[in-house]
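On clarity, I found the account of how folds are encoded harder to follow than it need be. For illustration, here is how one protein appears when written out as sequence plus C-alpha cells.
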Amino acid sequence: MADFSSQQVTELTARYTYGTWRFQKGWKPLHIVDAEGCFFTDAAGKQYLDFSSQLMCVTLGHKNPAVIRAIEEQARSLPYIAPGFATTVRAELSTVLLEVLPAGLEKYFFTTSGTEANEAAFKIARMVTGRTKIIARYRSYHGSTMGSIAATGDPRRWAMEPAGKIPGVIFAPEVHCYDCPIHHTYPGCGIACVEYIDHMIENEGDVAAVIVEPVVGTNGVLVPPAEYMPRLREICTSRKVLLIADEVMSGWGRTGAWFAVDHWGVKPDILVTAKGITAAYVPLGLCATTMDIAQYFDDHFFSHGHTYEAHPLTLAPAVAAIREMKRLDLVQRSRDLGSYVEKALKNLMERHVSIGDVRGLGLFWAVDLVRNRKTKQPFNTKEDKVSGKALVVEKVAAEMMKQGVFVQPWLSHLVIAPPLIISKNEIDEGIAVLDKALALADAEVDP
C-alpha cells in the first residue's frame, strides 16, 4: 500500500475523485483509517460514534467477524463466475431469503446496489404488465441511474431533467401527516393521499406499477398511518397494478421488523432492497418478485442482466449477515431500543424550540428542524440544497462531528439510524451531543 500522509490522502481524493451530491470546490473529505462496532476512527486517532450507520446501512456495526470471515472464505473458494452458472452460495442465499422476506417473494435477481435493484423492478414491471407508467411519490429517493433518478421525487432529480424524467414516471403526494402536502389532517382525512393514487391510476391509464418506500428514508423517515399500506395494496390489486416496495433503507431490521411492510402485513409484488443485506460490507442489491411474476418469463424473454449479477463475493456476506441478525436477535433489539430513542428525542423536543417533529420506527428516526414551530416553516428549501447554500441541519451535524458524533443531515432534518448493535449508553452519548448542538438551530428560530 502506498505510503501517503493523511493530508495527501485527503488532497488526492478531492483532486481525482468526485464527491457525491455536492459542489466539488472546497471539499476536504476526512481521512478514515479504521472502524469497529459503532465507531469509526480518523487518521489522527479521533473516534466518532456512527449515529447514522454511515448511509443508514451498517446494520451490524463495523467489523463483524462472521461477515468478514464469509468474504474471506468465498474469495478463496470462488471469487467470481458469470451469472449464467449456478453456485452453492447463490442457492444458499436463496433459501435463507425465503425465511425472512415477506411470504410470496420467491424469485430473485441480485444486483450490486439498490439503484440497480429498482432499475430491474421497473423493467420487470413493464415487461410483465405490458404497460408503461410508474407512479412514484414526492419526497422519495430510488437511486441515481437514469431510470431510478426519474422516479426520485427530491431535488437530486432536477439536474437530470428533461433527460432524467424518462417517459412514464409520474408523481403522487407523499404521506406526511406532520405537514400534509395536500393540506389534510389525520385522523379524519380518509387517507386522502393514498386515495389520490387510486384516482391517478384510474385517470392515467397504462400504469404498470406504484413504487413507494414503506417508510420513507432520507426524505424524512415518513411513517404512514396504519391504514395507508393496506389500502395501497387494495388499490393496486383492484386496479391490476404491481406494488413495488423500496426497502433499500427500511429493510433488515431498521424499523423493528425484518422489512417495514411487515408492520402492516402487506405483501408487495416486488420488493427491492440493499444496504443492510450485507451490513454494507460488500455491495449487494436484491429485486425479489412473486412466482406469479416469475412465471411470465417461462415463455417470454427476460431482457435484463449484468456482469456482476449474483456475484459470489456479494452473496456470501449476505448469508452471514442474515444469520448474525438472527443470532443477535437484532430485529427485536431494534424494536425494543426504538421506544428508548423515541423517549429521548421527545425529551429533546421539549427543550429545543427548533425541533418541529420527531418521528420514526425501531432504530430509524428523523429530527425535523423548523424556523417556526407554529407554521412548520423549515430553515431551508430544496432550492437552498442544490444552490450550495449552507443549511442549518448541516451546521448542527458539523458541530456534532466536532464533538465525536456522526449524523446524516438532509434538507431540514437529521436522520438518527445507528447500528442495530448500539447500546443504551452509546445512544445516550449521541443524544447528549445532539442536545448541545441544537443550540445552533435554536438561535436561528423566528423571534
